[in-house]
Amino acid sequence: MPTLDRSPVLVATGFLAIPVAQALVGLPSDLLARIEAAPIDPDLADTAAFSDAYGYPLEGGANCIVVAGKRGDEVRYAACVVLASTKLDVNRVVKRLLDVRKASFAPMDQAVELTGMEFGGITPIGLPADWPVYVDARVLEAPEVVIGAGLRGAKVFLPGRVLAAALPNVTVVEGLATEGLATDAG
To answer: What is the CA 99 to chain-centroid distance, rounded?
Structure first.
């Protein structure tokens, strides 16, 4: 079983996508002190593969899913963060939050282009400043979650509550996710 060589996140900025590193530099030091990063095998970036290979509990993983919804000619994007052991409620909750008729996972090429991150490594840290970030309330209850680092070759580790404290445009949403098999979509 491969091991995780975790470091304080600012020491590990070489493992992070540029928008992620730039966003982290602006965080208060008390929050930064609670965030770590580690390089991983990029082939093991997907949640289930990472959990199996590194022995990290699946319920400790959080997925960041880029969604798109349309209202007239306007496309609205958002990021949704849910525990890996749950499933994002796109058709009911996300659609209502974005105030659109239809919402779905953003196409991979759009998600990559708009975020400046690699698919399979998209994280809520460093997203476009005008995007809402919806975080399922269960994520905040987790003592530690692992999220993407913007690149497939690394992961970020932090207490779930830090996501709400550290990121702009965060809305904590009860029931953003339902119980069930999660989908990696970012």
So the answer is: 22
